[in-house]
Fold each of these.
Amino acid sequence: MKKEPIIHVKNVSKSYPIAGKEFMALKQIDLSLNEGEFAGIVGPSGSGKTTLLNIIGSLDKPTQGDAFVLNKDIKALSHNEAASLRNYHIGFIFQVFNLLPVYTVFENVEFALLLQNNSAKERREAVMRALNWVGLTDHADKRPDKLSGGESQRVAIARAMVKAPKIVLADEPTANLDSENAHEILKTMKKLNQELGTTFLFSTHDEKVMGYLDRIIHLRDGKIEKDEKNKL
Amino acid sequence: MKLELKLAFRNLFGSRLRTLLNVLVLSFSFVIIILLNSIMDGWNQQAQKDSIEWEFGNGHLINEKFDPLDPYTILDGHDKMPEENIGLTPILERQASIYPQGRMMSVVLKGISSEQEILKLPTKILKESKEEFPVIIGKRLAESAKLNKGDRVQVRWRDSKGTYDANTLSITEVFDSNVPNIDNGKIWIDINKLWGMTNLENEASYFVVDDKFKNPELSSWNFKSQFALLKNLKDLINQKKTAQSIVYGLLLAIALLAIFDTQILSIFRRQKEIGTYIALGMTRLRVVRLFTIEGSVYSVLALIVGSIYGVPFFIYMSETGFPIPPADQKMGIALAEVIYPVYGLKLILMTVLTVIISATIVSYLPARKIAKLNPVLALKGKKQ
Ligand SMILES: Nc1ncnc2c1ncn2[C@@H]1O[C@H](COP(=O)(O)OP(=O)(O)OP(=O)(O)O)[C@@H](O)[C@H]1O
Ligand SMILES: [Mg+2]
């Protein structure tokens, strides 16, 4: 029996009105991801990578077509349902980290769990486990402004992973990191993917990232150009 | 709600300086509002008490031809005391001139029984004095006429037939009262003496009544209750209060503006943070609530900070009082040199509620905008 894909994008287009005309950022995208994949959308700047990730992440809605995530129709979700989907099942990692500046590392990672009303003990265990995955248990009480770029992105990974989500969407996670830190981060994510079976979907134009991906989806001008297994 | 409160505190304590400034500004207006109001209330109580004790008693029974506000009615505004005179202390007013240091000064001679106890005036001294014409005056007249205790001064008055007579008064006491009305231009003398001087035996311009007075319908006498007499005073104080509320309004407005401004700036500057909250699974409504609560928490913190320095300050003020500059004491209403603020529970509760509610409203108004933000743009940090 063939498994249902965890992400299923059918004929999705996204257009923005610009200067009175419709600008097509995504054009009839078809894409499926199975659980546990470690895949990346690769393409030049402006090709629509972030737009596609945002639709899959239920932060945005397609103009045309349907996107199903965990069998949920993104278009049909209410605000609250979308919030809940993100809270429980989707982890986000951003290019610029987006850590909450006034919170400590611990509190940043804890945030999603607070929304889930977990007990303080459960939260503490989960946060420390997640910080352990990224090797930052010693930095729990630091504020983000005291962290290096690599450390910040690792906090972001812990924050995305702490709730054990089904999917992690990482939008150019290495763009602001040096080569050494980029490799660190990628190794960490790859390891989590293998150990926990979490599905990862990247957007990138970084060669280093491509080296780690199992599957590369080439995007250009809002269209999928090529979708290939990556020979590692 | 609990979570938003927790997060609001986290955010506020996280951004220390901004929070501290807002809280200080708000707590300041808070303390000032309570203090100013308490001083007004203290003044009100003091002025009422003093006026009752020194001037009003339980009310005045006034001759129908006599208008205390019109000096021209003094001449004819008097009459024989009624038969039924339980609880009545007669006061007769007569116009006269005194000549301190060769100057002429118009005054009112006020005859009062030296045995009376209804008013705080030290009239006993009039009985004890060995002088021929002993009188007492207040500190204000003493100052304006440059008269001291023990001084003598020439007086000229007219008797009932209009004939001028003159004699020498001895100042046996200068009393200190907060009520200018019984002091400025008033000379108090034993009523028996005044009757003799003017041939107006058993006549009075008005009576101060005490609690034994039954208020019978008396022809040619009008009764003005204590309440009615106090009304002028209350009106005046309320007028002052209204004028003052503009000051509080302004103070509060400044504090609220600071919060409003912080909120608008926050929502503008914290776009990325808002986008992150939403990406992490917070609903927009909850983010609106979070920002609103952040604003009202300012007022709660301001309350706490305000009490930390406000309460000792209030206690200090209630012990030492609030000194009134001499210029203000000439205002013509009962105003002590020092006013002791009176802190009413109602006043404090009202102020607390007003501050918290208005802080919440000014926080909510800009926060509503969050519900309309596009999370994708917010995450990019695009100003929307
Ligand atoms: N809100 C918007 N309004 C108008 N145009 C938009 C909006 N968001 C994105 N676009 C346009 O859609 C296209 C795709 O944008 P997107 O951000 O998805 O590209 P990207 O592949 O992520 O690029 P980058 O590598 O630079 O991040 C771009 O041309 C962009 O200008
Ligand atoms: Mg992008």
Amino acid sequence: MNLGISATEFVSQVKEGTISVEEFVAKTLERIDKVDKKIHAFITVDSQNALDKAKAIDKKIKSKEKTGVCFGMPISIKDNICTAGLKTTCASKMLENFVAPYDATVTSQLKSEDAIIIGKVNLDEFAMGSTTEFSSFGPTRNPWNTEYVPGGSSGGSGASVAALECLASLGSDTGGSVRSPASFCSVVGLKPTYGLISRYGLVSYANSIEQIGPVAKTVEDVAFLLNIISGHDPHDNTTAKNPKIDYVKDLATGISGKKIGIISQMTGDGVDKEVASATNTAISKLQDLGAQCVPISLDAVEHSIAAYYTIAAAEASSNLSRYDNLRYGFDFGTEGYEFKAFISKARSNFGPEVIRRMLLGAFVLSAGYYGKYYLKAQKVRTMIKAQLDEAFKKVDYLISPTMPVLPFKVGEKIDDPLKLYLTDINTVTANLSGIPAISVPFAMSSSGLPIGIQLFANSFKEKELLQVAHALQGTTTLPEITP
Amino acid sequence: MVEKKEIEHLADLVKVDLNEPEKYIKQVEQILNYFNKLDHVEFHSDDTLGIQIAKDDLRDDVNVPYQDSLIEHLKKDQNNFIRAPKMV
Amino acid sequence: MTKIGLEIHCQLTKLASKLFCSCKAEYRNAEPNSNICPVCAGIPGSLPLLNKKAVEKAAMISLALGCTIPEKIGFFRKNYFYPDLPKNFQITQYNAYGPTSIGSDGKIEIEGKTIRIRRIQLEEDPGRLVYEGTSEKTMITLVDYNRAGTPLVEIVTEPDFETPKQVRMFLNVLADLVENIGVSDPYLEGAMRVDGNISEGDGNRVEIKNVGSFRDVEKALHFEITRQQSLVERGIAVVAETRHWDDARRITVSSRSKEDEQDYRYLPEADIPIVLIGNRSIEQIKTQMPESIVAKRERYIKKYGMPTQVADVLSSDRFYSDLFDKSHNETNAKEVSNIITTDLMGLADTREKKLELKITPKHITDLADAIMANKLTRNSGKSALHEMVKTGKSLADVMSSLDLGHVSDASSIEKVIDEVFQEEEKAVAEAKQNPDTINYLVGKVMRKTKGKADPATTLEILRKKLAG
Ligand SMILES: [Zn+2]
């Protein structure tokens, strides 16, 4: 049995009866058992429940009952998305024992389409990081070379899909957290338009800019998942009330006659040589398919990292206030403590990156500094969006490498936070402006490390974005991880 | 320049005990210096992004009790209260 | 000169659900932590869903206080740690950056004095702390989040009051106003809470918090003014600080708690989109506004010729004015207002008694009509009202069960008078000499008929018999 098939292939094979769900899920669990010691993509594996569900779905199929469109597809979920009855730790000691009493909207959407939640996957604590090294439960490693980081913060999502430990995953993307691991692990990852997917049940980090996003082996799979999890949610007032779109239909339309802008600020200085050359190849392949590529300058991108980290830190410091260990959290009694002493002690269980961002957030919001930092950061968002709107008058898509660098070694940048922040330069623009962006695996470096290409479209143009991503995907054949 | 006193004040605002405040001083200062880039941006608009909702699309005022007993999922103390530390 | 400003927190107790979730807005008398859900308990991943009616009702309060309502409103987070705050921030409104609060720049006239309203904002109430244990050592803190998320409207005035008496009058008007709009029952425990700030001359401002009931506000202000004035007389500067009202000792006490000088680090609440209210909605809300107390009072005086005092009492109480408006018609208005203001209000002089009244507009209409048609004396009417209020039974049922029907046919009254003449020979003789003593005989007839005899008929027959 080949665990390397795509989610879409899985569905057709199950429908044809060439594989059984139980068999596939059992093999997947075996695979997790075998490889996850090295990769550490999972925080929680829900083996028994997954097998029970698989049997139940096989039975449904046999008795010709109506089955959900996922047909028992094993999916992993980032551990900052709530799953009733299964721990949601956010890779933090603060939520070590936290079991959410409810399902996130995306979780219940997947469950009602008969997806099997096979487990919860690793992340940087509360999604703050771009390498998954800041997990309180230990780093996730890159399946292509375990000495390297898998990207982050949804490193567990990227790694679990790449290592064939599941067919697809849901991550969350606040500043590139879906696209960075997609790029580093050679899988597809989409950051949808802000408001396309419900955030109900996603544990907030920077709630004005983050979105849940699918991670999978192919663009088709991402489109398939988007069909299930997109749309207005009465539990989330920030979701848009747009008519439902079928993202799978017309995916192979092609891009002949389309215009693509190459973002100068994301392709020039500071981009790794091999990454730059892969980007150039991608551009010429797209031209071969009939697209016209032109350079586009977005000078506001220069301020994007400062604006992004100001907003993210400010919102994080407020979003993480609720973890005082009174109502839920970990074992630590209040006896003998005065309030402030108690919560300060409990909260010192946050990891160093979370503490750093909370301190920064408190600083930029404190009296007298709001106008200097937070308000200006908000104006940068407006500026970036205005420049993007101008750009999208001239072109249909924008292109850049997803990450300006190749995957680096575990521990290499962990002690220099600013240096790490700067690697987000190509991804934060989509979050600040709300537009969708996708990372498509495109090449392998000479050292065998993945390189992803990022494509952008204007707000709520996911259908068109998936079409260009699909076209790009068709221009390259990449190695598969051998089980 | 960020000083130890300032870091400790920030730590007090977000309620964390810093085991090694010195460790954070340099990093926070370095990052704040980077944020100062924002001071040099020339803006042509004071608008800020942000989504909007029409008043009529807001939630209707209807009482729907939570279907589950939430307190059973929380750290409850005597008589279903939540226990808090001493307040001084 | 004394300058006093107020911050009033008013719960929207008449709403069905909380400000950001569908739990009950009325949290009182529930088991601890039984009125909570992931949203109001701050469970990770939950998102606030703003209550439409809360926005509309807050807009009504703003309009009633002459405030401007902006086209867009926004919400902010006020960050501070306290165990009664499930998220350790409060969702509120703020008027410094971007979209603003529901109301601003209003004014209201109180006895010829203009009180300016700085702003009106919507926000969530925190939970409730309960302290148990006798000594400081054994004391424990328990939290009940049933109240967390209850909709509150905060009304902030400019420091335009000069005396505690003006404050009291303002608060009474405000309480009647929110009750009239139908958003709040201001007399419920904790439904209306007042903080004050006071300064003498150019002196520093002192905040006064923790005044339990708003009846105590006047006392707390008096105490604080006296304290500040005596400091000034002794040449001691007043310290800018927050003082708490000590309910037991009836004094204000300096609160050394640092919580009061917090840096709240306000930031926009991105989970709640900017709410577009728009001119059309504002016009619509205006048409839904109930008649103001002032307009109602004018109507009662002009249309029904009510005495000013009666109109005052009736118009300022939503419950009784509703009852009046639903039970009167062109002809019985005066009788109806009499029944309500003299008899009914006397029967229900407290809030609790008012809530227990089983009275309907039909009861009042029937009663007024019966009195006017001479089927019932005013005296019997009072008894009937008493019974209807207690049992909710119809007037007809009450009249027959208490035997209250009016006796107005001359022959039955004459029979009774004949009895009285036999029993009271001396009094009859006296009345023949001195007609002024006739009332004694009328009283006897009334007693025999249990007040049912028509007084006019009785008098007429008596006079005839005495003369004959
Ligand atoms: Zn609730």
